[in-house]
Amino acid sequence: MGKRIPITRLTAFFAAFPNEKACEDYLFKLLYPNGFICPRCGSKSFGRIKGRKELQCHRCRHQTSLTKGSIMQNTHLALRKWFLAIFLLTHDKRGYSALSLAHELNVSRQTATYLVQRIRAAMALSVIPNALGGIIEIDDAYIGAKSKTRGRGTEKVSFMVAVEKSKAGNVSLRASESLKGDDYKTFAYDHISHSSKIRSDGFRAICSGLASYAGHRPETFCADDCERSLPTVHHIISNFKAMVAGTYHGVRKDFMQSYMDEFSYRYNNRRNADVFHTLLSDVCFSPKQRKAMILALSKAQDLGTSRIAA
Predict the structure, then answer these.
(1) Helix (H) or strand (E) segment spanning residue 89
(2) 135: closest CA among 196, 54, 78?
(3) Quick one: which of 137, 178, 244, 273 could link to 310 by a disulfide (CB 3.0–4.6 Å)?
(4) What is this structure's pTM?
């Protein structure tokens, strides 16, 4: 593809993708960086089927779509709108609500919701297998409107957070129905390397869930010292709550994890100037079997359907 200039500004986006053909050309270069090769007969001779985003082999007549195996497969929406949605969601740290996206793309709110859910689900595939390492801070928190019950036992959504204490450190968030030892065990298994050094408070569930981690060092903090003693993880918790309150003004419980995945993906790629290309190439055009995983992740989770505020 030659030297690629990262697309970091909206003006650069519109210059790079002035029409549908430019988007199709970009997808073609992503799929066939060394030129087209027919998946059926191996021929390099092909033609484009006008208006169908498809290629046809000249030798065996096999047809293949430019969006096959991606989150855009079988879409009736213009590629340029898909591209713009991906760009907006990756370049605004505050996030984009479906209503705001519908306004920017000039589509219905239902269409914008369809786009957002699938893009967030694609982001989740990069967040889930992320193994945090080095020095880790881990804690839990609750998100939701004020209620009579405070702390553990509240009706708010509970979630766990782990973050690397380094300048380029990554983060993982997991919504959970409870904060028991098994919940922490599963969370740590999915996100934290066993060679890590983990700092946390002395909550019994954390100690139980991380019992197999030799580097776990629970500490006892008084209420006034807790935030100062685990500053990085509490900074992440504060930023996530601010995003939910400021951009979305409250979200449904069953979609809470998708918002966490979006937040984590943007945070983990905050130093990646070419994040638009990364998301489009590494996630959208991954192996076909990921298509089913993306659709499964985009569906509602069993945390209830009530809407909550940060």
Answers:
(1) helix 79-91
(2) 196
(3) 244
(4) 0.85
